[in-house]
Design a protein that fits this description.
Radius of gyration: 19 Å
Helix content: 10-25%
Shape: elongated
Structural class: mainly beta
Number of helices: 1
Distance between the termini: 35 Å
């Protein structure tokens, strides 16, 4: 898998040593999945997805496919740090 993210965020320093930061970003990934000992048989099994369109269903459908694929990802997080 290869990919990249563009992040932006804000860092707040509470003292000379402690701080807190939040960030968010968007990225793109390209992957090539080779499944070993595949338990999903494409001839008799099917992917049962939700009736309404939602993000978790799109992710599961993308992750269920073997082979070459690409997609966008969203990133968000926070960090609490101590600076020596």
């Amino acid at each position: 898998m290869i990919g990249g993210n563009i992040l932006c965020g804000r860092q707040l320093n509470y003292s000379n040593h402690f701080g807190f930061g939040v960030y968010r970003g968007i990225g793109f990934r390209v992957r090539n999945i080779h499944t070993v000992k595949e338990s999903y048989n494409k001839n008799v099994d099917f992917y049962n997805h939700a009736i309404d369109i939602n993000i978790s269903d799109m992710i599961l459908h993308n992750e269920a496919n073997a082979g070459m694929g690409s997609g966008f990802n969203l990133t968000a997080g926070f960090r609490i740090y101590y600076r020596f």
